[in-house]
Structure formats: structure tokens, C-alpha cells
Amino acid sequence: MKYKTIVSLSSLSVLLLAGCETMQTPQQHREAQARQLAAQRHAEEQVYRVRGQVETVEMENARMVQEVQQLRADVRSLNSQVGSLNAKMGALEAKQKREMDELIRRVEALLKKSVASRPSSSSQHQGGYEHEVQSGHTLSTIAAKYGTTVSAIMKANNLKSDQIYVGQKLFIPQ
Length: 174
Prior knowledge:
Elements: H1 2-18, H2 26-117, H3 121-126, E1 128-132, H4 139-146, H5 150-156, E2 169-173
Antiparallel strand pairs: 1-2
Helix pairs in contact: 1-2
């Protein structure tokens, strides 16, 4: 459709260039025909060039349409992947929260158990004495002073070795 319009326009321009033939000499007539033929060839060349440009534009348009379709498919795929990753992250966060809550419950239970198993400070004084370590004191001298054993003092104070320090408060059982 586009090509027919261009061809008919070029033919019309050739006819307009021909002008009126009634008052021409044979030489003028031949020159007019040569000009008309040159104009027609020029118009045909332009039509041919325009057709080439149209074909190039159509091919480029088709390529771009394919690119856009591929990009849309890529975007859909990426959106799907993002949705999947968001769901996985949500599940991991929920799992992490459950594990953290469980860990907190375990630590609280251990702390409660530890506190419950320790004798209170008031009960310590009822079944023994509190002694503040002074310079030169050893567990054996303290045990002898209160009439108990080193191992009893170590056990009552959860000591792992017989090392003590100045200012340390020890519970001395009776």
C-alpha cells in the first residue's frame, strides 16, 4: 500500500515536470523527454531507497519487539524468583524466631534450676558461717579454725582448686 502511493506520487511528479508539449520543437521535445526520463529514474531510485529504509525499520522493529518480549519473560521469571526468595526468607525468619524462643526457654529453665539448687544466704548462715579471707589465710587454716575439713569448704563453695584470694567470702559449713 505504501509503495503504490510512493510510485503513483513519483509518476505524478514526472508528468508535472513534462509540462505542456504543444509548443516545443523536436529538439525541445527530446530534451523534455530526457528530463522526464531522468526525473522518473530519480523518483524510482528514491522509491527504492525508501523501500530499503522501510524494510530496515521493519526489521529493527521486529527485533525490538522480540527483545521486549524476552525482557517481559525475564521480568516475570525474576518476579517469581523474588517471590520464592521472600517466602523462603519468611520461613527462615520464623524458624529462627522459634529456635531463639526455644533457646531462651532452655536458658531460663537452666537458670531457674541453678537458682533453686543453691542454698539461700540466710540458710547458709543457719548451717554454718561466713568467712572473709584475709592475707595469709589458707583453706587448711580456715578449716582448722572452724573445725571442719578443706574438702567440706571446697564443696560448700563449689571450688575446683584450693586457691583462694584476699577479700573472698567463703561459706564454712558446721
